[in-house]
Amino acid sequence: MAANTTTMETGTDSNNNLYFPPKDIVRKANVKEYETLYQQSIDDRESFWAAEAKKLDWYKKWDKVLDDSRKPFYKWFTGGKINIVYNALDRHQKNATRNKLAIIWEGEPGDVRTFSYHALNREVSKFANILKAMGAKKGDVITIYMPQIPELVIAMLACARIGAVHSVVYGGFSVEALAERIHDSQSRILITADGGFRRGKTTHLKAIANEAMQRSATIEVCITVKRTGEECYMENDRDFWYHDLMLMPLDCKDCKTEVMDSEDPLFILYTSGTTGKPKGLVHTHGGYAVYTATTHKYVFDIKAEDRWWCAADPGWITGHSYIVYAPLINGATIMMYEGAPNHPYPNRWWQMVEKYGINILYTSPTAIRGLMRYGASWANRHDLSSLRLLGSVGEPINPEAWKWYHEVIGKNRCPIMDTWWQTETGGFMITPLPIMPLKPGSCAKPFFGNEIAIVDDHGKEVQQGEEGNLIIKNPWPGMARTILHDPQRYVEKYWEKYQQQGWYLAGDSARQDADGYYWVIGRIDDVIKVSGYRLGSAEIESALVSHPAVTEAAAIALPDDLRGNIIHTTVILREGIAPSDKLADELKEHVEKEIGPIARPAFVIFADKLPKTRSGKIMRRVLKAAAMGLDTGDLTTLEE
Ligand code: PRX
Fold first, then answer.
1. Which of 227, 336, 419, 577 has the fewest other C-beta atoms within 10 Å?
2. Mean pLDDT of the chain
3. Is-above-0.85 flag for pTM?
4. Dist. CA 428 → ligand 1 center (Å)
5. CA 533 to ligand 1: nearest atom
6. Mutational test site, ligand 1, from 425, 429, 529, max ligand atoms within 8 Å of CB
């Protein structure tokens, strides 16, 4: 039986491995039908997006929905005036949402803080005024480096409220990664914390921030939130405590939300690429607000009374779009948790689902696999009946983990939304809707407005069922507009390969089945996904080469049951330096210190030479085959 996407059946079709949504979910869904609406959204994309944009509050309506006069530098809702924070906070102050919880936050040690929409607005206003007092202006880039605490959200929103551009650096990153991002964005202000709690230990963010500020000298003002209370070095005239500043009797506690152009930048988020330094992708106020709010509302079927938990870190795009902006625009209650899912015991998440009555949980395959290891008994101790929908993101989810999630957590009644998207896309691109039959491991169908295809290197569509390059044929409002300071790289990386056709190259390999469902296989470039986090082989290699013992290095990904991938590195040592286990450990430590614990290589192998093409490119595919004990394939382009 073909997967009719508007079927009303319930239960499982075990032959086809199709999972049908419960009738109740279908009956109450925000979108009740896919095929016709999808076709309409493709036939008249601009009308579809204009209708969605009208649901937001604009200071001035746009003149043009889509400006494609300078492809691939598309613009959306040009001439429109908006601020995403007006939609996330200000407009809710005028109705009952004002007194509703915006954030329920739990720290790893068990401390709890909650913010109503009114309280969040007040805190954001206060902090926005402080940023202004510190000289922050519209268009300035402000770097945020924090653990998952409410002040991280407050800081992001405060920046956006005054028209400053935030650049959030994931709190698990280390010195080099932070210094590089500060330098690239030329930030004058850094917002950080003394540390955070993770697996019962404290992290020392301020110490890392201090070292990064030494390496990258642009920071003039550093504001630190006290979280752990551990001592840290504060420099006169540069360093301020957040709580001291928040006590300042500012003239006016209200901070007017800045009127922005639709296309004004909202944030920069760095992401790893194939070569060279991380790319600072730029997202905007208007199109991003429309895209994230719409995808969130339709895919996760958001209702006013929902308690939504996106268990990602705000330091990644998932957190930007679906912890902070989309849920606030949609007036949902956000659950946030600071720490590890298995601390102190593997029931920590399930305990919180029960305690707070969470309705929707959105997480990553790596987290699910990690919790699956402990078996069902930890989840079975808790009442998870508040859950209605589940979600997955970050990497392909293996059917075994999907089924465990569906059965043990969702009790066979919560559809799983496996959303495929990227930092570059701003929001979901290929995803089921709650009304669709699901196939474990498939991210189902394109979201409204999107035309997806699987093509070969020449742009020819591959046969159904065959693997090929995943491309997007159309612009969409949530797309990143450029790479900071490097528009040329933006063109080369995403648009050059299919320049003639004007298609976006996602960098993923995928196939489409006979029912039109998409199956993403993985990256085609040298991006390494470890536990769903995106790392560039180039970043890891340059961290290794920054060690005095190393002259050259190559990093590849090897498949791993738990983390998706692990990092395998091959290094060439300087003359006269002997390989040893001790040195291998030292190099692992070094990468961890430079980039962060997620980048720590699982293997450091010493070699005399790296396999290279005649043009000098490292042939990572050869290293990978060798490391996995497979045939190394065609070696005709190998230099020696
Ligand atoms: O390879 C795809 C994988 O994650 C990449 C994007 O990584 P990042 O920019 O860090 O964003 C992650 C969160 C949106 C993609 O190119 N990916 C993401 N979601 C899925 C996925 N692979 C398979 N299935 C998914 N649902």
1. 577
2. 94
3. yes
4. 10
5. 10
6. 529
